From TrEMBL:
<feature type="domain" description="Urocanase Rossmann-like">
    <location>
        <begin position="2"/>
        <end position="214"/>
    </location>
</feature>
<dbReference type="InterPro" id="IPR036190">
    <property type="entry name" value="Urocanase_sf"/>
</dbReference>
<dbReference type="InterPro" id="IPR035085">
    <property type="entry name" value="Urocanase_Rossmann-like"/>
</dbReference>
<dbReference type="GO" id="GO:0006548">
    <property type="term" value="P:L-histidine catabolic process"/>
</dbReference>
<dbReference type="InterPro" id="IPR038364">
    <property type="entry name" value="Urocanase_central_sf"/>
</dbReference>
<dbReference type="Pfam" id="PF01175">
    <property type="entry name" value="Urocanase"/>
</dbReference>
<dbReference type="InterPro" id="IPR023637">
    <property type="entry name" value="Urocanase-like"/>
</dbReference>
<protein>
    <submittedName>
        <fullName>HUTU hydratase</fullName>
    </submittedName>
</protein>
<dbReference type="GO" id="GO:0016153">
    <property type="term" value="F:urocanate hydratase activity"/>
</dbReference>
């Protein structure tokens, strides 16, 4: 319903075939995102750093394909988008790499390859394993979290700034991004990322929450 309503309200589209939804998280509640994309008829690319979570969703049939190769992900995205095929593709990697690759495609080809975007990392708990920084692999991140939590925290905040910078570039070109109630925008703001709504008070963000703006 969230994906369908985002398409209806912000893309003015009842039919989401050929539309692309990019997000992250295939763990607990976030595991439903892959299934939601296919039910809605769009192309869903979902990033997940934890291979165990990715493989679990694939085995369950909630995720149609998995890949750890961004070139392959972009090629499949283009193909499914062009043919208007419903697809859920799990990218085994950091979502920041995926967002920055989409910015690179926009900068080099002029193509905006994503229509809808969100995030379901566990950003309510970003410094204790809920969000892994793009600068490190998953296992490296776990080791650093254990050995030097202060440095891990610093890298998470740097990663959040990169995360938002990429989303902002794509949103400026027409992608619609929303907050999925996981404290992503709040933690990004605390990290110093550019998420403030211009001309509004400090508690308002430039991107809406799914509760009030989409489900409501």
């Amino acid at each position: 319903l969230t994906v369908l309503n985002a398409g209806r309200r912000y893309l003015k589209a009842e039919d989401l075939s050929g539309k692309v939804f990019v997000t992250s998280g295939l763990g607990g509640m976030s595991g439903a995102q892959a299934k939601a994309a296919v039910i809605a008829g769009c192309v869903g690319i979902i990033a997940e750093v934890d291979e165990a979570a990715l493989l679990k969703r694939h085995k369950q049939g909630w995720l149609m394909e998995i890949s750890n190769n961004l070139d392959h992900c972009i090629a499949r995205l283009r193909e499914a988008r062009k043919k208007k095929i419903a697809l859920s593709l799990g990218y085994h990697g950091n979502v920041v790499d995926l967002w920055e690759r989409l910015v690179h495609e926009l900068d080099t080809t002029g193509e905006l390859l994503v229509d809808l975007g969100s995030d379901q990392t566990s950003c309510h708990n970003p410094f204790n394993g809920g969000y892994y920084p793009v600068q490190l692999g998953f296992e490296e991140g776990k080791q650093l979290l254990s050995s030097n939590p202060g440095k891990f925290r610093m890298l998470v905040q740097e990663s959040l700034k990169r995360h938002v910078a990429a989303i902002n570039k794509l949103a400026d070109k027409g992608m619609f991004f929303w907050d999925y109630g996981n404290a992503f925008l709040l933690e990004a703001q605390r990290a110093g990322a550019d998420v403030a709504k211009k001309g509004a008070n400090k508690t308002e963000f430039r991107y809406p929450s799914y509760v009030q703006h989409i489900m409501g």
